[in-house]
Amino acid sequence: MADPELEAIRQRRMQELIAQHSVGNQHNPEQEKAQDEAKREAEERRQMMLSQILSAEARERLARIALVKPEKARGVEDVILRAAQMGQITEKVSEERLISLLEQINNQTARQTKVTIQRRRSVLEDDD
């Protein structure tokens, strides 16, 4: 009796859900463009602040580190920017100061490897 009507309602609802889901997954090119522009501007501000804080030699060293380990360089940049915002850095960071900062960060993040050897005894082995 009500089965065909109920089935029709279910089908319509499924189509609505699928349509909503597909609309939610579609990327709006204008929104993507605005997000990309905001990211680019934030990165430009970040680089400008770093150029004001770091000396030329320190910037060069950080750029070389970024070629090899981008995540480490980004972390060092974050530390330097935070310190500058908190007023801990009052003058340009020299290459020597950057090196000492890198050494401190390496010591803090050094991973210690521990190897445990478990020997299994053979069934045929006599301990008597």
Automatic annotation (TrEMBL):
InterPro entries: PDCD5-like, PDCD5-like_sf
An MF annotation (GO) of this entry: DNA binding
One cellular component term from this protein's GO annotations in UniProt: cytosol
Entry-linked Gene3D superfamilies: PDCD5-like
Region (Disordered): 19-45
Compositionally biased intervals (Basic and acidic residues): 29-45
Family: Belongs to the PDCD5 family.
PANTHER family: PROGRAMMED CELL DEATH PROTEIN 5 (PTHR10840:SF0)
Protein's recorded name: Programmed cell death protein 5
The species this protein was found in: Sphenostylis stenocarpa
